[in-house]
Amino acid sequence: MREALFVKRNADKWKAIEENPTRDPDELTARFVELTDDLSYARTFYPDANVTRYLNGLAAQMHRGLMQNRRDDRNRFLTFWQYELPMLFRQSHRLLAVSAGVFLIAGLLGWVSAAHDNTFVRLILGDQYVNMTLENIKKGDPLGVYNSMDQGTMFIQITLNNIYVAFRTFIFGLFASFGTIAMLFYNGVMLGSFQYFFYERGLLLDSILKIWIHGTLEISAIVIAGCAGLTVGNSLLFPGTFSRIVSFRRGIKQGLTIAVGLVPIFIMAGFLESFITRLTLPPVVSGSIILLSAAFIIWYFILYPIQLNRRLNP
């Protein structure tokens, strides 16, 4: 993009920022993020131009305002969850749809494959798990695997494993998104074949009411981690108006922020799996936990970012 066109497209925005200062922390942060993006672009393509020096001075002025508004670390913590993560995630909604689509298609393929091949479930889940579950079904406790370990140990192991899976899904995005797609596909096939295994034995509803107590958060977080990985991969494949290295740096920052934001989700999913899933709960209680978990995911990662974006960028 030519410098003149870049200035023409953004001059009104910069003028509004300069002439209409605000002390609202959220609005100030929103302006600062947008301004630093413009500054990064200008430094890359017009390093010695007047517009770069102008943006640098304006950004420094806004940075001082941010420091004055930041009262303590708790305010920074709240700003991250209330503003930074949702606004970054809003930019990745299209990739979230791609991630969810890949996972759902893989899940359907896993279900169909298990239905047409008696050996498929054992191939995906392993003989040990299948044999153990069949033995538990005979005992009248098909999901007894959740009672087989101490709660505290189970919580730590499951949480760390889920975080590992999520960050691996994110990191594999470095392979031009194909690694992330492969991870999403594998996990989707595993889930589809797993659910068919219980459906074939007339235990689908029982498994849903039990497994999805924690699975709603866990599976949603894996799909969102896939979105983070695709964000990184697509920054390499489709740099847009940025140079490929600048686009990649932006993609890494955005994807990593999303991945880090998933840690509390995995901690809660690990807690539910270790302490709640093992309990024999009435269907209405299990269903309520599942619905509340799904409502939180939809609100925080989809609806709230859209609402926040409309409020800050009317």
Radius of gyration: 23 Å
Secondary-structure-derived class: mainly alpha
Distance between the termini: 26 Å
The succession of helices and strands, N to C, reads HHHHHHHHHHHHH
Shape: elongated
Largest beta-sheet details = none
Structure, described:
The chain is mainly α and 314 residues long. It has 2 domains: 3-70, no CATH class; 89-312, no CATH class. The chain is 82% helix and 0% strand. It has helices at residues 3-19, 25-45, 50-69, 73-90, 93-116, 120-125, 127-138, 151-171, 178-199, 204-237, 244-261, 263-276, 283-312. Helix 5 (93-116) crosses helix 9 and helix 8 (151-171) packs parallel to helix 10 (204-237). The chain is elongated, with a radius of gyration of 23 Å. The mean pLDDT is 86.
List the SSEs and their pairings:
Layout: H1 3-19, H2 25-45, H3 50-69, H4 73-90, H5 93-116, H6 120-125, H7 127-138, H8 151-171, H9 178-199, H10 204-237, H11 244-261, H12 263-276, H13 283-312
